[in-house]
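Pasting two entries for a bug report.
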Amino acid sequence: MGKLETNKKAKEDSLLMTAYKLFTTKGVTSTSVSDIARSAGIGKGTFYLYFKDKYDLKNRLVAKHSARLFKTAMADLEKSGRVLDFKEKIIFIIDSILDQLNENQALLTFISKNLSWGIFKNALTAHSGTDEIDFLSIYNEMLEDAPRKINEPEIMLFMIIELISSTCYSAILYKEPVSLDELKPHLYRSINDIIDRHMTNA
């Protein structure tokens, strides 16, 4: 990477880090492009060389941090050295991601408020940064290892993600209706049921 590219990357990283700090302390609505540029020590005009607006930057942050959560979960799976079947792998990855969010509740709040299915898909299939990995390829490999064919795998994944996001936010932040550890067995039984319903009988 040449000096120009290095400087460009440094400015982009500065904007991303600064915006994340402001978004997680002040909120997206209360943070302006001027706030981000000023805090990053970059001219407001320069901001628009990297992002269309603060919402474009916000989406990039959601994608970046979502991909990082998954990357860490996959590293945890590899380090464990365990041989798991399809459903066990799904649960292991989810368990790792939930533990990461439990440890970083500011990130949980930021992602849960700003994550949509479209952004999630882009987060896990795009390659705009070194933190991102090809989730789609990994997911397809996992599907190939399933004991039976999975019907409508994207809908299955969507249902699992919606279930997790709708139940775990309150459990992590407020321990309502129970703590995350108490919720996990119920959550994982439901996820197993979702997977079973999407498996063919053949």
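Entry 2 (this is the one that rendered wrong in the viewer):
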Amino acid sequence: MSETLTLPSPAKLNRMLHIVGQRSDGYHELQTLFQFLDYGDTLHFTPRADDRITLTPPLEGVDTEHNLIVRAARLLQNACNVTCGVDIRLDKQLPMGGGLGGGSSNAATTLLALDRLWNLGLSNDYLATLGLSLGADVPVFIRGFAAWGESIGERLIPAQLDAPWFVVIHPGIGVATQTVFSHPELTRNSAPISMARAVEGGRNDCERVVRMLQPAIGDALDWLDQFGSAMLTGTGACVFCALTNRAQADSILHRLREEKNEGRYRDWQAFVARGCNTSPLHTALEECRSNMMS
């Protein structure tokens, strides 16, 4: 019986996001700080003797062949002329279209898992370049370190960020990234800043437009802002607030549950997580290597 490899597929937050320009190809030039969370999806990979790639369960509204997990597996299979396949099972926790990088994280976990499972021995540089064709956020999940990101977000420099606890709220609606980036009122000319300045604090240039497009996200930002400095991650829909300790975060979550029981914010989903400067995926992979050597 084939051994199944189980790995996390963590969420990320954009601790700030400035848009400093727009390229001739339509892509936006960004400056952002990526940080991982100790919360996310889980993927299970079981090798097959044939070349089939399967994914269960199917995600509602997403054709399986278009799922980034399957696309990542086929991309690697074709790039390296792999003749074996894999059965993949996804335990989904992250909301789709939430700005937490769920699809990109799934793709990165798939590339790193199959590199190991298929004994390819590829470098992270190669996998990050391959992953970029699937999405601009895939490389940061491949690299596995909190990072200062520039260009479209793929030019990465390691960043040492504080690692507070976070409350993350998804208001129960989605945001189309393309709609935000094509909006005529989106700020596209923020002055570039240094990484050191960004670490001290920044804003998300998408927030004003997202508030206009989806007032419910503005409601979540305003509610969370009473406990600290609330911010949008990516283009949303998720919003977050950094807290000093777990007890503070749990208290806010408890407050939200009480208000939901009173009939308010019924569509909101929330969780508590810790910030990580090393991806939980890479921690798990290192544990796998250590176990093999012991």
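Dev reply: Rendering is fixed now. As a check, the viewer should reflect this: The two ends are 23 Å apart (CA to CA).
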